[in-house]
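Marked as duplicate of an earlier ticket. Keeping the data here for the record.
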Amino acid sequence: MCGRFTRMYTWEELVKLYRLTDLYMNSNLQPRYNICPTTEIDVVVRGDDARAIMPMRWGLVPIWWSKPLKEMKMATFNARAETVAEKPMFRDSFKKRRCLIPASGYYEWQTTPEGKQPYYFTRRDGQPITIAGLWSNWKDNATGEDLKSCTMVITEPNKFAAEFHDRMPVILEAKDFEQWERGDVKDATVLMKPAAEDLLQKWPVSKRVNNSRADGDDATLP
């Protein structure tokens, strides 16, 4: 799974990687070192002619959800590749609203005699990780307000990641972005596979990451 990640990329990196046309909208991005579910994250959404960054709640709320948000008890920040096309929570977004979620790196945990040891995973080439995502635009019936939300798609791990978890995020390469965004269900399904064995690197980090209340501005975490 992917339950915590970081944002240390720059706006310039996003513009280059995703070919954004709005060059200045979020030019002063601040680093975040312990991003948790239900908080707001950066999401890349493709329109008719261009991509744009949209802030969204990490934890998808489907369009059909009729209860107050506080009654959303299910963990919807990850969607399993094997069932994403059938699960009511995700299937409509999988068919119609796929997105790209940038991350500088993500955390996974290994059980040790001294407790759970977090490890930090990044790309070996230093580029931002692009995680396959789904998004939704839910309307709060009580207030009439719209809430954009998203989830990360996860799949089986490659051998490199399997030592730490039985899942890993679906990581997309630049050549696959448009296929994920605009392709039909079959086109999208073939991309939901483990990353290449040589794509990622990892190292142990502070156990303070284990605390969801750890200061997200603390640069010593990863």
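See parent ticket for discussion. Residues 108 and 119 are 5 Å apart (CA to CA).
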